[in-house]
Amino acid sequence: MSAAANRKVGMAGRSGKGIPDDGEGGYPRVWLLVGEKRGDNAQIRNLAGAVGWPFVEKHFRIAPRWVDAKPPVRPSLAHVELDRSDPIEGPWPVLVFTAGRRLASVARYVEQACGGRTQVVVIGKPRGRAADFDLIVVSGHYVIPDAPNVARHALPLMNVDREALAETKKEWVGRLTLLPRPLSALFVGGPTGGLRFDVETTRRLLEQTRETVDRRRGSLYITTSRRTPRAIADWLREERTPNEQLHLYDPDEAAGENPYRGLLALADHFVVTTDSLAMMVEVAWLGRPLSLFPLTRESSGLESLLERMRLLPRLDPRRDPILAGGLIARLLAGAGHPIHSRDLTATARWLVEHGLASWLGDPVVSPPPLFDDALERVAVRIRALVTG
After folding, report:
1. How confident is the model at residue 308 (pLDDT cuts 50, 70, 90)?
2. Domain with 50 in it: what CATH number?
3. Of the four listed, 177, 210, 232, 329, which is most buried by Cβ atoms within 10 Å?
4. 147-175, pLDDT tens digit by residue?
5. C-beta neighbour count of 258 within 10 angstroms
6. pLDDT tens string 197-241
7. Of 210, 206, 183, which Cα lies nearest the Cα of 269?
């Protein structure tokens, strides 16, 4: 996009004169705001697909300084690399889907640009005021108070496109079928949400995975992900045995080189770290054996003290949203002791409790395919949101 186009986007946002327009075939015009997080993008596409209206995807690259930092959630494109992103200009959409705080700011920019006429659906807990969004779609691991604009469901809105997976199987069958069976795929995540994920954690993960693979007399294929730290990737490279396959995630690798989809199509057993919500749920949809490696939470000394004093539950937004979102919680976060708004182990516990997975080290179970009608239930709410 040219510099002139960038300026045009900025003027459109300030003018506030845009009007949402009907899209293809008389359907409401729909935009999907997507970024570089595969799991978020998959949920956005799945939900939009369930609604059933044509949509246009708008892809965004976040400026390097904001990739790990947390910009304030407000109508803004200041954190976006405009010259590497799709244009943001009219005709404006009636409905926008997005996920995460960075793209939530883009969604609010679009809403402001068209004078507040766009309905904004955000997946996951947004930062900022919940009232700024028309619908907030959250799965069970988010800690957020009930509200009329909150739609809850047990699991992230993932599923598996079986037709696409069949095509992927054809592409990868020659590369994976020669490996001894059963083939176990180890999907390595990374630190997030206060969960400990260091080299020592990875050592335990690999030891327990190898024990499981040896008992099954099979082979192991390890692949890292976007959040896997360089130190862990380097350690895995050094520790890999000649009989193990290893792929290290590279954001610039050519399409078709990442084995993740191929392993989904062809592996017999999966080991997933419990930070990786999208990967856990995608495997559960397949109905194949899934072993979960639980990560431990890093609690600060202050948080431990609050737990012992029985004050921490009062900072849980589900119990006391005023206190949790107020001065005490902000002071704790400012002092480097945030009260985490996600329980990233909740999804793993749900899968194990419902017989869809087992803990790594326990006997491997053969589960039924996952059934979850959450997509359709939320889609009904969204269609009603737009059509009234």
Report:
1. low
2. 3.40.50
3. 232
4. 899 998 888 888 788 899 999 999 999 99
5. 17
6. 999 999 999 999 999 999 999 999 999 998 899 999 999 999 999
7. 183
Tokens of 364: 């491997």
Q: What's the pTM value of the predicted model, to 2 decimals?
A: 0.74
Asked if 134 contacts 118 with a C-beta cutoff of 8 angstroms, the reply is no
- If asked whether residues 125 and 193 sit together in one domain, one would say no
- Closest listed residue to residue 195, CA positions, set 293, 297, 68, 339: 297
If asked whether residues 175 and 264 sit together in one domain, one would say yes
3-state helix, strand, coil in the chain (%, to 5): 40, 15, 45
CB 303 within 8 A of CB 283: no
Burial 111-135 (b: 16+ CB within 10 A, else e): bbbbeeebbbbbbbbbbeebebbbb
- Which structural domain range is residue 315 located in? 301-334
Looking at residue 318, its amino acid is R
Examine the domain organization and report whether 229 and 307 are in the same domain. no
**Quick one: 207 and 275 in the same domain?**
yes
205 with 245, same domain: the answer is: yes
Indicate the burial class of 75 (C-beta count within 10 angstroms; 0-12, 13-18, 19 or more).
Answer: middle
Same domain for 44 and 126, yes or no, is: yes
- The DSSP 8-state label assigned to residue 151 in this structure reads E
**305 and 244 share one domain:** no
In this structure, what token pair is assigned to residue 234? 């380097």
DSSP type of residue 265: H
Lowest-pLDDT choice from 33-37, 187-191, 344-348, 351-355: 344-348
Residue 145 class from Cβ within 10 Å (0-12 exposed, 13-18 middle, 19+ buried)?
middle
- The number of folded domains in the chain is 3
Instruction: Give the angle 202-208-209 at the CA atoms, nearest 5°.
Output: 85
Nearest-5° angle of CA 190, CA 195, CA 188? 25
CATH of the domain at 232: 3.40.50.2000
